[in-house]
Design a protein that fits this description.
This protein is 10% helix and 36% strand. It is mainly β and 200 residues long. The chain has a single domain (2-198), classed as Immunoglobulin-like. Strands 2, 3, 4, 5, 8, 9 and 10 form a seven-stranded antiparallel β-sheet that branches. The protein has a five-stranded antiparallel β-sheet with strand order 6-7-1-12-11, with no helix packed on it. A hairpin with a 5-residue loop joins β6 and β7.
Length: 200
C-alpha cells in the first residue's frame, strides 16, 4: 500500500510539472502538429531550430527569416524545447532578442531518426485577443550559435516569401518542402516537413 501512495504522489508531481511548463491551451481544443526535417542530424548545441508563426488578418507577409512579423515561435536549442510569444509593442524585427523569455515547452519531440523534430501547439496559444485564429502563417528557420539565420523555407535564409499559409477553416494537412543544399551545413539545412490540424 505504501508503494502505491509513493507512485501516486510521483504521478501527481509529474502532472503538475507538465501543467506549469506547457502553454495554457496545450491540453485542449484544436492543435497544430508540425514536423521539421533537416538533411543532417539535429544538433543540441551550436545553433537553434525555430518554427515561427504569424497570426494576423492584416499582414500579407508571414514570418521572415530575420524574425520580422513573428507573433509566436517554438524553438529547439541547447537540447530543449521552448515556446515564446513576441509582444505586439516590439518594433520588427525583434532580432531574436529575448524580450519576453520563452517558456520551457513539453509539446516538442526529437523523433528517433535524429533529423526530425515535432511540436504540437494548441490554437488557443496562438490567438491574438479573444478569438481563435482562422489563418496561420508558418516558417522554419535555423540559426547558428549567434542567432544568425542559416536557412529558412524557400531558397536560403534570405527568401521573404518561403513561408506557408495554413487556412484553419479548410486545410487539414499541408506538406512543406524546401530545397536541399541551400545551407552549407547539412545539420541546419531544412528539407521541409508537414503541418497537420488535430481535432480532439
Amino acid at each position: 500500500m505504501r508503494r502505491l501512495r509513493v507512485l501516486s504522489a510521483a504521478t501527481l508531481m509529474a502532472a503538475l510539472v507538465a501543467a506549469l511548463t506547457m502553454p495554457v491551451g496545450a491540453q485542449s481544443g484544436q492543435q497544430l502538429a508540425i514536423t521539421m526535417n533537416v538533411a543532417g542530424t539535429l544538433q543540441d548545441f551550436g545553433g537553434a531550430y525555430y518554427i515561427a508563426f504569424t497570426v494576423s488578418d492584416s499582414l500579407l507577409q508571414g514570418p521572415q527569416p530575420d524574425s520580422t512579423n513573428w507573433t509566436h515561435y517554438a524553438v529547439y536549442r541547447d537540447g530543449r524545447f521552448f515556446f515564446g510569444t513576441v509582444p505586439q509593442v516590439t518594433a520588427p524585427p525583434f532580432g531574436f532578442n529575448v524580450i519576453r523569455p520563452p517558456a520551457p515547452f513539453l509539446g516538442g519531440t526529437v523523433l528517433p531518426d535524429g533529423r526530425t523534430l515535432q511540436v504540437v501547439v494548441s490554437l488557443a496559444d496562438l490567438r491574438i485577443g479573444s478569438a481563435l485564429p482562422t489563418r496561420v502563417m508558418v516558417n522554419f528557420v535555423t540559426t547558428d550559435g549567434s542567432n544568425r539565420p542559416l536557412d529558412a523555407l524557400g531558397p536560403g535564409a534570405t527568401d521573404r516569401f518561403g513561408f506557408v499559409t495554413v487556412d484553419l477553416r479548410r486545410d487539414l494537412f499541408v506538406t512543406v518542402r524546401d530545397p536541399r543544399g541551400d545551407c552549407p551545413d547539412p545539420d541546419f539545412d531544412i528539407l521541409g516537413g508537414e503541418i497537420r490540424i488535430l481535432t480532439p
